[in-house]
Prior knowledge:
By secondary structure, this protein is α+β, with helices and mostly antiparallel strands. The chain has one domain. The protein has helices at 44-54, 72-84, 89-92, 99-102, and strands spanning 7-10, 24-31, 35-42, 64-66, 94-98. Strands 1, 2, 3, 4 and 5 form a five-stranded mixed sheet that branches. 20% of the residues are buried.
Amino acid sequence: xxxxxxxxxxxxxxxxxxxxxxxxxxxxxxxxxxxxxxxxxxxxxxxxxxxxxxxxxxxxxxxxxxxxxxxxxxxxxxxxxxxxxxxxxxxxxxxxxxxxxxxxxxxxxxxxxxxxxxxxxx
Length: 122
C-alpha cells in the first residue's frame, strides 16, 4: 500500500514486546493540519482472549479498531486506508486536541513517526 505522509503515528505507551497477533496498543494519529486523534488497535485473537478471561458476554472499548495484527506496517496501512476510504479518522477515533496542546513546542516535522518503517524509534 502507498504510505501517506500526511499523518504520523505515535505510541503513547511505547511500542515494546507486543505479541503481533494477540495484543492491543494505543495510538495517537497526528494529522498534518495539527489535529490529534486517539485509538486502540485490537486483534481478533486479543478480543477473544479478553472475553474468555473476563467471562463476559460483551466486549467493547471506546475508539477501538480491529486489525489483523499490530505490526507497525499494518497499523500504518490501516490508518492510511481509513483516510483513503473517505477520511473516517474523525468517525473511528476520538479527537483529543491539537499538536500545540498535546505536543507543545513541536511541529509536525519535529515529531517522529513511530510506525514508519524508515523511522522505528520508540
